[in-house]
């Protein structure tokens, strides 16, 4: 039950309206008596709230609730047409789009090849074509775009991005310029940050302070502190691929090109593939090599479950252990500074390694760091960047449509 609010009549009405709307979002269709009981409002006040929300087009009737003794009550729900949002995930290869209404119901999604041109005009046309493939009944209130980089709030430019892969994005005031070109309210967010946003409702649902390590072709991290993303003053919090580490060349030695020094050179996709290849584990790419290493490492020679000492099993176990040690080396620096309660392992490398790799990383991290953070694998299904982008878009749209965030108080 939420707390009753004291203040001016207008403030009280606004807070009570928001309480009812967020309650309907969380609990689904409810009757007037249920809204009264769950919010702590009197029945007449709950009726007034519903009347206001119906008049504003934010709430609609959902039919009668049958099968109960006594008077058959009418139920109410948030009006899906009160607003729409769109999530976009952009990579050098493709553009993925997902649209939803204000209740979070997904209306559709698509994936199209990235535009072949490298200029701003090609980018805008590619995004416009992708958005047109998932039409919504009205212009979206928010469009959140996930990219392999981050907007520097001090300059308005996309930073921490590959000049080769993201050349079309490297223009001034990128967020505002792109929004004006598309005629939509656009927000650009780092793709790993969006994966962490999605994870808040999954692997990290019970921990407001966590680090997400994204291990793929490239390495990245997201920091969530007190349930909120920490982006950093220049937008680069979590750009751990640049992190100097023992065993890897520094920027002084290798130049400042991303992927030639630091954590990325030590544990990025290319490095992982080379480590496993040196231990006799093949793979068309790093993910296949990791999956093959896990398979070989788990092989047994006899019915007693004794691990085989030949056939590549021992070498694969050694190689997989080295990969875990490299990942843990970077994580040790991160968790020592941030002291999270949880580390979520995400990305194709971690997915390919699964539980065996997770356990090895946890063991290595305990040796290297005082941290007692739990280590979990990502539990988001599908595209986590799209899921996180949709979450951010819905949060912003609901605050706009409902007049603010959910009221502070006990959970409904």
Structure characterization notes:
The protein is α/β, with parallel strands linked by helices. It has helices at 9-27, 32-39, 43-55, 120-132, 174-182, 191-199, 251-254, 262-267, 269-278, 286-297, 313-338, 348-368, 384-402, and strands at 30-31, 59-64, 74-78, 84-90, 94-101, 106-113, 142-147, 150-152, 157-159, 186-190, 210-215, 219-225, 228-230, 342-346, 374-377. A five-stranded mixed sheet has the order 6-5-4-7-10. Strands 13-12-11-14-15 form a five-stranded mixed sheet, sandwiched between helices. A three-stranded antiparallel sheet has the order 1-3-2. A hairpin with a 4-residue loop joins β5 and β6. α1 (9-27) packs across α3 (43-55). The protein is globular and about 75 Å long.
Feature tags:
single chain, 412 residues, alpha/beta, 5-stranded mixed beta sheet, 41% helix, globular
A few lines on this structure:
The chain has 412 residues and is α/β, with parallel strands linked by helices. The chain is built from 13 helices and 15 strands. The strands form 4 sheets. Strands 6-5-4-7-10 form a 5-stranded mixed sheet.
Break the fold down into its secondary structure elements and pairings.
Blueprint: H1 9-27, E1 30-31, H2 32-39, H3 43-55, E2 59-64, E3 74-78, E4 84-90, E5 94-101, E6 106-113, H4 120-132, E7 142-147, E8 150-152, E9 157-159, H5 174-182, E10 186-190, H6 191-199, E11 210-215, E12 219-225, E13 228-230, H7 251-254, H8 262-267, H9 269-278, H10 286-297, H11 313-338, E14 342-346, H12 348-368, E15 374-377, H13 384-402
Parallel strand pairs: 4-7, 7-10, 11-14, 14-15
Antiparallel strand pairs: 1-3, 2-3, 4-5, 5-6, 8-9, 11-12, 12-13
Helix pairs in contact: 1-3, 2-3, 6-13, 9-10, 9-11, 10-11, 10-12, 11-12
